[in-house]
Amino acid sequence: MILSIAWKNFYRQGIRAFLNVLVTALTMIALIFMLSLLNGFQVQATRNMSSTDMAGGQYRVPGFDILTPTEWEDRTFSVPDKLHALPSNEKAEVLIQQGQLFPNRRLYPVQLRGMEIDQSLLDLPLSGLKAHGPQLEDVIPVVVGNRMAQKAHLEKGSTVVLKWRDRNNVVDARNVLVVDVADFINPRVDEGVVWVRLDHLREMTVRPSEVSWVAVSGFEGPVDGMEFHTVEMLMADLLALLKQDRRNSRILWAILMFLAGTSVFNTQILNIFKRQREIGTLMALGLEANKVVRVFVLEGSLAAFGAVILALVLGIPFFMWFQSVGLDVSHLSASTMPVRERVFLDIQFFEVVSSVSLVVFLMIFVAWWPVKKISHLDPTMALRGRGIT
User: Fold this and answer.
1) How far is CA 279 from CA 68, 111, 275, 360, in A?
2) What pLDDT is attached to residue 325?
3) Same-domain status, 223 and 245
């Protein structure tokens, strides 16, 4: 009987009930969309970082830091046999040294990054270097990225002077030929980076068999004298930034919850104020005060459960459409974020269930809060319309 009364009262509210349901449903959709978009952005950013630079982790000399270029020359090591024996699709040897480029009579400090040319672990557009043999030529072939080429005013076929220091602190300089201007998804391996064949860079710097790190597909166990840096350690700055974005998104989450809760709360306040005589009549006919409270709470709860159904009706087509087009983030190409392609939602089942449950619980709570005073209502005063002022 209580459910029947609650349903009839809810249905008679008409447009007010529909607006409550609509606002709550849109709140659910917005929450799921926001969380799923952040998940999708993180998935694509970490995937791009891993596929172009970090793979499944890196073995390094203790103390190596990519942000301290003055120490790069002192942090190289010969590749241990355990790592050198791995197949080309499970490891990538990388050597990093300082260099100075002189495009158009200007000085441009660069990072010389030598990459093992036969590796297939990292997805890098370095095919232009494969056409040149391991023997060092008079003009050294290099590959630069679009961002690097734009800032240094380079183009495919440009010849510029490159200066570097070898293992014996001897300064050398030679012409380099830009054999390709490649499109790197990850700006961290583009801006300020000049890509060279690993065997060429080793010969240039007199560092045979030495590398700065070895990227591997997964942890290969402890290696004497080496530290293994996990993917989480290598991209700690990116993960911290994404974590901060999630914290900031809580402000929007709080605003949405406030709006949805306010709509139900105001409806309940208006209901009990306008329906005092109805409440008094029900109590005079013998309906207990707690059951009257239950009727009004069920009315508010119907808005929450109706919102779940409406969210499914509106949300599923919307999410399907969004997954077909994605979010264009090409404007991030000017930043250091490793995402330039379209971002798609990564919908997590647990997050969806928890978000919907949280909204439903909040709606039920704000439906109960303003009507709890009914339990102390005097039926005679309610029949006169003076029970609640």
Assistant:
1) 75, 78, 6, 26
2) 86
3) no
